[in-house]
Amino acid sequence: MTDVEPTGLDPEDLDGHTMDELSDYLDAGRRPRDESIESSPGCRIALDALARLRSESWAMLEGEALPDSTRNHAWIKTVLANISRESRAGRAIPISHPEPDVQLRMTEGSVRGLIRAAGDAVGGALIGKVDLEGDVSVPGEDITVSVTASVPYGENLTELAQRIRESIAAELLTHTELNVTAVNVTVDDIHTARTAPPEETR
Amino acid sequence: MTEHRELSRKLTALVSTIAGVVEVYPSEPLVRTVARDVLAAAAAAADSVAGSVDPDGSGAPDIAGAPDGSEAPHDSGAAVDDARVKVTQDSSGALVVTANIGVAGDHPVPETLRAVSHALSGYLREREPASASTGASTGANTGAGAIDVAGASSPRPVISVTVSRIDNSVMPGLLD
After folding, report:
1. ipTM score of complex
2. Which CATH code of 3.40.50.150, 3.20.20.140, 3.20.20.30, 3.30.70.1350 fits the domain covering B1-41+82-129+156-167?
């Protein structure tokens, strides 16, 4: 597991805000309302992901993982950097429309956010990284989705990975016109006090 | 400019009523909007000071009229901006409408986008004959939901709608 990429925390990534600022804002119950955060889709996607990360899985990760605290802290920092990077608007993903003068699109950031949410919603999993491989700006192009995930100790990894895959595929089918040819799920961590060394979890 | 802003307000209100739309985002980051507003206010203030002749109030110095122009636009203009749909004109004179929205997780994005674009084109189609003082547009509509509003004399509007966020808090059936 790599350490935080400095570029992932560039303030420009999130309309001038950093993940630290968003974290503090979330801590404060999003009060007083900061319009520059609330009106930024990138910040909102990052806030959504942060809020999920701080749910029960986060508590489990922090509370039970003292022996592995350094490694887990690094994992969390990496996830935060990934969230920051993925929340940017990124590429424009077209949605079809018969009129040539009407252009409909989704941002890559919104799709990454959708994928992360779909994965986070499955059985206590925490999505680490989301990649969309292929030219998403070209309709019909083959697209491969790759995610990494940390899953709770004791789960059947094959079954959980399959459920994550199905959840992501279903959401992409509902919300996009992407030609998704594969959804790859790599379980690269297990969050619990009895976390095995990284080599054994892969 | 003012006409576009008024239209933007109306279109923002319209878009926010479409089923599945949970938010209409500004088409540019608020930081940039604030900076632009401050610069515009400063320029207007400079103009009003330089032009010592009393302006006859046809709409020029309303915001910049405040002597301490630094705070006014920051608080009022950008903080609660209800003109979030961007309205401009391209070089051919065609209206360019750009909306940036958030969609509820339980509403499929493609359908929501099409509903928004349909509402925008419908609004512009209704509005155009009234505002196009050239008249003459005998409604050369070819049907099929075309945005053919003002016949050959007026270029067709360009509508661009982007989903920038899907609201995951409304995504039933995922949590198990």
Report:
1. 0.86
2. 3.30.70.1350
